[in-house]
Amino acid sequence: MSAAPLLSVVIPVYNEEMNIGKLHTRLCNTLNPLEITWEVVYINDGSKDRSMAILRGMAEDDSHVRFIDFSRNFGHQLAITAGIDFAKGEWIVVMDGDGQDPPELLPELLAKAQEGFEVVYARRRKREGENFLKKLTARMFYRLLAKITNIEIPVDTGDFRIIHRKIQRILKQMPEQHKYIRGQISWIGFNQTYLEYDREERMGGTTKFTYSKMIRFALDGISSFSTWPLKVATVTGFAVSAVAFGLIIYSLYQKFFGTTEPGWTSLHISVLFIGGIQLIGIGMLGEYLGRVSDNVKNRPHYIVRDSNIPDAEH
Ligand code: UDP
Ligand code: MG
After folding, report:
1. pLDDT in tens, 268-310
2. Residue 59 near residue 292, CB atoms below 8 Å
3. Is 132 exposed, middle or buried (0-12, 13-18, 19+ CB in 10 A)?
């Protein structure tokens, strides 16, 4: 299979030894009957279990299989980035390695894309097997993001989508360190549409996204596409200063024309309050500055230890 395949499937893998075998079978059962040329690019994102050994075995048995083995865990978004970078297909699908994104949807995604869309994302109709808090926080986050950014990032979608080669080319020109790929893809534009599907439960294992990873990811999403938090800090700062100014006049008035009180409580509270607001403002500046400095460093996004794709190794 030397000519470019019609379809590349990109699948990030982090400790998914229980799932990738099954997933690959489902993928083959779906794609082989279509009689199209296809490849699958598995990115081993520093798994600590047997995932990589399984991937090597799969690559030996099935010439559709490409693998990229990272030197350590670089995170979901960078694993996807690497997969997209080295995918050779005219169309590229991104999906999770735990079976939550059903490979059975691929023919429909491809067909929809070929109707004339550069991007077709899969929108989850319902989410199975995820706890209430995760669903609630995800829901709130997507609504908030939609409100405060000026690009349309589709609500309730993950990274499960099909994109055309054109999008791959443009993504390579967007070298931000803190990737929020679904945001970048929306930002790129062209014809985008969606298909609805039911998100399944993980086949095995547990979610790799801890709450702290989710918060980091949410902050990446917001800070890459909006300066809203900076504005909030500024506006709050002004409001608080206005109130403080009023209070200063009042206390001066009290001192000279009224009765002076010990004033301990009010002093205490206001100092704390101002301190808090300042910390919030500084924190938000820090969020952006940190990302600026990361981008200035201009390090490679990920490091490949080994791959059966000729140009992928470092
Ligand atoms: N993943 C990864 N690197 C990470 C975390 C996750 O490559 O640091 C992969 C994981 O193996 C899976 C996909 O990203 O294929 C989605 O992760 P997960 O299912 O844990 O996320 P959730 O579905 O719970 O949001
Ligand atoms: Mg999952």
Report:
1. 667 767 777 777 777 778 778 777 877 777 788 899 999 999 8
2. no
3. exposed
Nearest ligand atom owner, CA of 23: 1
Cα(204) to centroid(ligand 2), Å: 10
SS3 assignment, position 161:
strand
* Prediction pTM value: 0.75
DSSP-derived pairing of the beta strands 7-13 and 91-94: parallel
Query: For a pocket test of ligand 1, which of 209, 215, 301 has the largest count of ligand atoms closer than 8 A to its C-beta?
Result: 209
Query: Could you read off the pLDDT of 247-261 as tens digits, one per residue?
Result: 777 777 777 787 766
Cβ-Cβ contacts under 8 Å for 292 (sequence gap 6 or more): none
Q: What tokens appear for 96 in the block?
A: 């999770």
Tokens representing 243?
Answer: 């109130």
